[in-house]
Structure formats: structure tokens, C-alpha cells
Amino acid sequence: MTTPTVEIARFPALRLLAWQLHQERMSEPDVLALYEREWRHLDPDRLDPDERALIERLVRTYGHGVLNV
């Protein structure tokens, strides 16, 4: 079974965090790890609803309900 991926361009904050990666997609666990590692650069109140929902789903699925920031 393959790990689902996320299209980076669909999510504005993710696009900013992943600018140096030069790739179009990332695995979902890698996306969660990137959000956690770079959280200090985000304003959570300014996340759009789709991106907020993505983060919440990733936290439930891969973070066992915990966002490590």
C-alpha cells in the first residue's frame, strides 16, 4: 500500500514552508513533519479552512491526535 500524498500548491502555508523542496507533492507523514518543524513561521489564525482541515486530519491520522509544536 502506498502512502497518500498532498499537492503542495493547493495549500498556501504549505507552499511557503516547502519553497526550497522543489517538488509538487509530498507524502502525508512528511507534510505533517514539515508543519510541525516549521510551525513557528505560521500564523494559525490565518490558515484557510481547507488547510486547517488538512492539518487536523494529518494530526489525527499520523500524529495520534497530537500536533508536536
Task: Please tell me about this protein's structure.
This protein is mostly helical and 69 residues long. It has three helices and two strands; from the N terminus they run βαβαα. The chain has a two-stranded antiparallel ribbon. Helix 2 packs across helix 3. It is globular.
Q: What's a quick, concise take on this entry?
A:
The chain contains three helices and two strands, in the order E-H-E-H-H. It is mainly alpha-helical and 69 residues long.
* Number of E-type strands: 2
Distance between the termini: 29 Å
Unreliable spans are none
Percent of residues in helices:
40-55%
> On the 0-100 scale, what is the average pLDDT?
96
- What structural class do helix, strand and pairing data support? mainly alpha
List keywords for this structure.
69 residues, single chain, two-stranded antiparallel ribbon, 3 helices, mainly alpha, globular
SSE topology sketch:
Elements (H helix, E strand, L loop, with lengths): L4 E3 L4 H6 L7 E3 H11 L10 H14 L7
Antiparallel strand pairs: 1-2
Helix pairs in contact: 2-3
